[in-house]
From TrEMBL:
Keywords: Membrane, Transmembrane, Transmembrane helix. Residues 57-166 form the Phosphatidic acid phosphatase type 2/haloperoxidase domain. Gene3D superfamilies: Phosphatidic acid phosphatase type 2/haloperoxidase. This is Phosphoesterase PA-phosphatase related. It comes from the Bacteria. It holds the Pfam family PAP2. The chain crosses the membrane at residues 20-45, 57-80, 125-145, 151-169. The keyword Membrane applies. The keyword Transmembrane applies.
Length: 183
């Protein structure tokens, strides 16, 4: 299985270094993709329409994001996978990271956002966030900092976190009304 992972990682990363504009774009997406998605989520707080539902989705999204990243920290205690550039699989376009490779926090964060929107019925925004999540995760492999399985594992963590939040943070409860009526 490692051979397939290394092959796919190398295939995506081998595109790096051939076009300065695409390299710049992928580095930029990798660096600023998550903060831009978080700002896009936060900006929805004042959205018109079904304000209570929208705010519930935004809180659920934030909880999914945080839960996914917390689970990643637990995984990192058990899994110490070296980065693909340290294994000679990829060419690194950015500064090296001291953290283990698996799972990708970027993939977890972006897929938690997309999954939360999709699961709570905000399909149009969810599809845009899903497209952005795909771009961010591909950029992480392209720039050489993650294996394909790292971003797949991170995406799965983010989706599972969104499922857990959807199951336990229910719309219309007293706690939900308290949180969604702030501001």
């Amino acid at each position: 299985m490692y051979e397939l992972d290394a092959f796919l990682t190398h295939a995506i990363n081998s595109l790096a270094g051939n076009n300065a504009a695409i390299d710049f774009l992928m580095i930029w997406v990798s660096a600023i993709g998550v903060p831009l998605m978080v700002l896009a989520v936060a900006g929805q707080w004042w959205r018109q329409g079904d304000r209570d539902h929208t705010r519930h989705v935004l809180v659920a999204t934030g909880l999914s994001f945080l839960l996914g990243l917390a689970v990643n920290q637990l995984i990192l205690l058990l899994v110490h996978r070296i980065r693909p550039y340290d294994a000679g699989v990829s060419y690194l376009l950015i500064a090296p990271s001291a953290d283990p490779s698996f799972p990708s926090d970027h993939a977890t964060a972006t897929f938690a956002i997309a999954a939360a929107f999709l699961m709570h019925g905000m399909r149009r925004l969810g599809i845009w966030f899903f497209a952005a999540a795909l771009l961010v995760t591909v950029s992480r492999v392209y720039i050489g900092t993650h294996y394909v399985s790292d971003v797949l594992g991170g995406a799965l963590t983010g989706i599972i976190a969104a499922i857990a939040v959807r199951a336990f943070y229910l719309e219309g409860t007293r706690f939900d009304r308290l949180i969604t009526r702030i501001l």
